[in-house]
Specification:
Elements: H1 2-15, H2 29-39, E1 63-72, H3 84-101, E2 105-115, H4 123-137, E3 140-148, E4 154-163, E5 179-183, H5 188-196, H6 205-216, H7 224-231, E6 235-238, H8 243-254, E7 256-261, H9 269-286, E8 293-297, H10 302-309, E9 315-324, E10 329-334, E11 337-338
Parallel strand pairs: 2-3, 7-10
Antiparallel strand pairs: 1-4, 2-4, 5-8, 5-9, 6-8, 7-9, 10-11
Length: about 350
């Protein structure tokens, strides 16, 4: 325990040094806490950073919705492909999207970072991205931890939101007769990753810049999630792992058969222009990391739902729930003919 504590204090001492500056002075845990806290907005109620734990009062009539996601260097990101600030933004985004997919609103976050000694200088830059997305989403970062590791760099965010318990979007609510609809477009983030990977494509700096932004700085649908839930959407999920994979989750959880109309899917226009339609389809159906929402709802509610989220994004019907099906089933068509969806999206193990 003593050695572990010493390693932790050493890491905290390193972490307050600017990137690229030789470490010549030590400091303590509290100097780092103060420096990170200065980047963040303090919570309007309760206790935030500075004590052993945070406190807040839940909004009456709501339930707490909690999620956590971990980003590991070499698995989920590469520092030669992303800036530390963009990495901080995305670490918040993946969690905010889960909150939105449940029809909830974000409130508080806890952030923990494990850094190798030679990476300690980037913690401030990572927190700049975290702070920017927290501020943009109305989320208060109220605590966390920073430790040293032999590697790899790891960021874990736990995000807590609130929702009306009667309006939570779960995966098991799809019913025969519902339509399957998606917010925004699909394939933009995966196309950005393909560009980073060096995949051959038509050169277009403006389109490339937009696709890379989709990958590095996604925009979770924080308005659309609660709005769709309040209008009567039956179930929801984000498409962090691709349309095909996430539709499969809905079908299995709801024990229904879902048919996707591939021709109706709004693939990102820049992905289509740079990678041609066939490749853009694969990126959109199987690529993931778009952080759009996939929902089922009665057809009669679609027009109202589109109007309700029009200030943030679009809503496109891309399929239908056709029947009850034990264990779930997903099929697809294009031009009225069967279409093979191919391999599923991202798989953790």
């Amino acid at each position: 325990m003593i050695e572990a504590r010493k390693q932790r204090d050493d890491a905290l001492a390193l972490a307050v040094q600017p990137q690229g500056t030789p470490v010549t002075e030590g400091t303590d845990e509290f100097a780092l806490i103060n420096r990170l806290a200065a980047l963040l907005d303090p919570p309007t109620h309760g206790i935030g950073i500075g004590d052993d734990a945070a406190t807040w009062s839940p909004t009456p009539g709501t339930v707490t919705v909690a999620t956590t996601d971990m980003l590991v260097e070499g698995i989920h990101f590469r520092l030669d492909w992303t800036t530390p600030e963009d990495l901080g933004w995305k670490a918040m985004a993946v969690n905010l999207s889960d909150i939105a997919a449940m029809g909830a609103r974000p409130r508080h976050a806890l952030v923990s970072i494990a850094l190798k000694p030679d990476q300690a200088g980037i913690v401030i830059e990572i927190y700049k991205g975290i702070a920017a997305h927290a501020r943009a989403s109305g989320t208060f970062v109220v605590g966390g931890d920073t430790v040293r590791t032999d590697g790899p760099l790891t960021i874990n965010v736990t995000l807590l939101g609130e929702a009306d318990p009667a309006l939570i979007l779960r995966r098991d609510g799809a019913r025969p007769g519902d339509v399957l609809a998606i917010t925004g477009t699909a394939g933009g983030s995966a196309a950005g990753l393909a560009l980073l990977s060096g995949e051959p494509t038509d050169s277009d700096p403006d389109r490339s810049r937009r696709l890379l932004a989709m990958h590095h700085r996604p925009s979770p649908r924080l308005h659309a999630g609660p709005a769709l839930a309040s209008l009567g959407a039956r179930c929801g999920i984000d498409i962090s792992d691709g349309i095909a994979s996430e539709t499969g989750h809905l079908a299995r959880s709801s024990n229904v058969a879902i048919v996707i109309d591939v021709d109706a899917v709004p693939f990102h226009p820049d992905a289509v222009a740079m990678f041609v339609l066939e490749r853009a389809r694969t990126l959109g159906l199987n690529g993931g990391e778009d952080y759009e929402l996939l929902v089922t709802l009665p057809l009669s509610l679609v027009d109202r739902a589109r109007d309700a989220i029009a200030s943030e994004t679009t809503l496109t019907v891309i399929g239908r729930v056709v029947q009850d099906q034990h264990g779930g089933l997903v099929t697809a068509t294009s031009g009225g003919l069967p279409f093979t969806l191919g391999a599923g999206g991202y798989v953790a193990f």
